[in-house]
Amino acid sequence: MNYPEPKTNRFRALLSSSIKTAIAAGLIYWLIKSGSIRLEFLFVSLDKLPALLTGCVILLIGLSISAFRFKELLKGAGAPINTLKCLKITSIMYFFSQCVLGPTSGDFARYYYTVKETEKGTQTGAAIMADRIIGTMGLFGLSGLGMILNWSLVESSPELRSVAVPMLGLLCGLWLSFFLGILSLIKGRYAALYIGIPILVSIIVISYTDRASFLAVELTPMLILVSIISIFAALIAPEFLENGWFYRNLFNSSKIGSKIGQLVSALLIYRNCPLILLKTVLITAVQHFLLILSLYFFSQAQNLPAIPNFHEIFFSAPIAFLAGIIPAPAAGLGVNEAAFETLLSLVSSGTVSAGASIYLMMRIWTTLFSLSGIPFILRENRKRVAS
């Protein structure tokens, strides 16, 4: 069957890019006017240079770990490449993510240069999707851990509870849906139901035995809802396989649908390699922790009116990283800073008021490190011209 080629609307892409840039500029302007971003906050005295250098080294290691995670996912998808090539592609990805405004993003660049090496577009797309999914879920997991470490503060603050309830609910829903969905694909629906239903019953029992605490009153109803959704996810997961309803009825009706079907099939390959998934999750946890740790050392090196402690950074950073998921230019410029500023102020009870400057320091060094991708881009361009 022949399908029409999808049309590219350049005006819409330009308009979207312009709106994103305007939002980023507006957020940065607001942070500067409010005093959250000041040049003196970015100043580092000589006696604090060790903290700055430690933060830079940890950040560089954390950024480099992305290459090892991507390598494992490519191997699982059936498109293996060596570590050096993964490091090269990762540096190019960071350059596009940090320095390029508009619809061109790091993932598009990563896809393009990986396919040049592997000549396997569907498998590469699946690896990138899996990378994003696992990375996002890892941030939700660390967000939940940050809330647990500051649980007494969360319970006593209505503002923090308004953040914690939906975040913890979403965290539990995502991880439980992922776990039950994978179990349903590997062992079948009944195996997933044998685990999912007792979890739902346990949450309901807890809600009736403890009616006074914050958990029972505000969080348990959210957990009951996400548990039901997770069980539903386990029931429909097998329908995405090639003999399932979704694949047969939705993915074969157009060229785009066919491409999506191929991508979903490639993505589902990971159900056959749980060890690679487990290794990727562990690599992701290490990477995210290193990024949070680098943010902490940057905060200790800067000339701030109040220095946050590690618990406050650990609470605020994962949720601020998640804010970057919102499609925005230059890796969420302005969005991450505003989110980190707000969260750090809430968790410190207003004591720390320069969170945007802390995040901006990390962004500056991330951008500088991302420039390492330029030589690889130039080398690839020279190869293309020569050929």
TrEMBL record:
Its main location: membrane. It is a multi-pass membrane protein. One of its GO terms (cellular component) is plasma membrane. It is found in: Cell membrane. Pfam families: LPG_synthase_TM (PF03706). The keyword Transmembrane helix applies. Signal peptide: none annotated. InterPro entries: L-PG_synthase/AglD. The chain crosses the membrane at residues 12-32, 52-70, 133-151, 163-185, 191-208, 215-237, 276-298, 310-336. Keywords: Cell membrane, Membrane, Transmembrane, Transmembrane helix. PANTHER family: BLL5419 PROTEIN. This is Lysylphosphatidylglycerol synthase TM region.
